[in-house]
Design brief:
alpha+beta; BirA Bifunctional Protein, domain 2; 8-stranded mixed β-sheet; 3-stranded antiparallel β-sheet
Length: 350
């Protein structure tokens, strides 16, 4: 839709079938969670902390005090995670939200600066429960959309087949030929494996950077199978909000689901240790400051909720727009949005 006036009748007409499918999927999502005893919640987009992922850039705004006090800085959230976990600490047990979320400096065929995140949490649930629920939800959405496959260009993926479940260590063993967990924290060892595989690195690359380069170049392209793939058991450094595995402290209880080469969701068995969570946040914001020259405030209210007693729980965040894209075969995220985020006009001399 780039360069077109989205509101023109021909432009809107070209998206109407996708938007109708989107509407049916949203109705199916609400029915899916209602049948399972979930409560739909709504939390504010404006937050003290937007989310503390190192590489995400947030939108900041000023909250004006109507009584003449100083303005305060708030952020548009990158995820409703902190707010929803506060509700869990307050006694809610099964909640979901279709939230508008905001991530600056992100725009591509599969990214929009503003998009819809489906996020849900279950007290007393583990990662296997969340995997089963994710598969069932995507199948319900496919049925609602009238789609037999997820489609992205030439890639086709059947959500009704059993989904492949693969640990990160297994994926690296199969597709890179080494034990990635054995290199944990050993930057030189991981760079040596990258060099062997022809993946370029720089002297400034940290272990995390090299890991992601190997993921993008060697692992993710291999996850485009006949059925979606769930990639679980991530290195603990890759999951700031997930709890460490009791079986292996090198890994965290986290999974991502992939279909047609696109990441659909990111799920955790949630970390409930407030002191450990604070240490992770502080380390991440120190690194963000070093990398990007900025950091975001820690939500002290969130840490207080953890300390007060977040129950054992699991949660998942799924990009609704991407799922609509795959179930309609749309080539761009803007083809499944009622209205795109405005782009600056292009100068004739640019």
């Amino acid at each position: 839709m780039a360069g077109k006036e989205w509101w023109r009748p021909d432009s809107l007409a070209s998206r109407r079938a996708n938007l109708a499918a989107r509407g049916r999927m949203v109705a199916a999502i609400r029915a899916f969670f209602a049948e399972r005893g979930f409560t739909e919640v709504e939390t504010p987009c404006l937050q003290v902390s937007p989310g503390l992922e190192i590489h995400l850039k947030a939108f900041a705004t000023a909250l004006v005090d109507p009584w003449g006090g100083p303005d305060s800085t708030l952020y548009l959230h990158t995820s409703p995670e902190f707010a929803m976990k506060k509700l869990l600490a307050g006694g809610m047990e099964r909640i979901f939200q279709l939230a508008r979320v905001f991530r600056n400096a992100e725009r591509s065929a599969s990214h929009s600066p503003e998009f819809t995140m489906l996020e849900w949490y279950r007290a007393g649930a583990g990662l296997d429960d969340m995997m089963d629920e994710t598969e069932a939800l995507v199948r319900a959405c496919a049925t609602a959309a009238g789609a037999s496959h997820l489609v992205r260009g030439e890639s086709r993926c059947d959500p009704f087949l059993p989904w492949r479940r693969l640990s990160v260590a297994e994926a690296f063993h199969h597709h890179c030929g080494f034990d990635v967990l054995a290199t944990t924290g050993d930057e030189a060892a991981l760079k040596a494996e990258a060099a062997r595989l022809g993946v370029s690195t720089s002297p400034a690359d940290r272990w995390d950077d090299v890991f992601f380069k190997l993921m993008m170049d060697c692992v993710e392209p291999q996850l485009d199978g006949e059925a979606p793939t769930i990639l679980h058991s991530w290195p603990v450094a890759m999951a700031a909000l997930a709890r460490p595995s009791p079986a292996d402290p090198r890994i965290a209880e986290r999974f991502e689901a992939y279909a047609c080469g696109i990441e659909l969701c990111n799920a955790f068995a949630e970390l409930t240790d407030a002191a450990l969570q604070r240490r992770r946040f502080e380390a991440d914001m120190e690194l963000k400051q070093a990398l990007y020259g900025e950091h975001y405030p820690i939500d002290e209210d969130f840490l207080a909720a953890l300390a007060a007693g977040l129950p054992d729980c699991a949660g998942n965040a799924l990009g609704l727009d991407r799922l609509v894209m795959l179930l309609t075969g749309a080539p761009s995220i803007e083809d499944v949005l009622w209205m795109p985020v405005a782009q600056p006009p292009v100068s004739e001399n640019s």
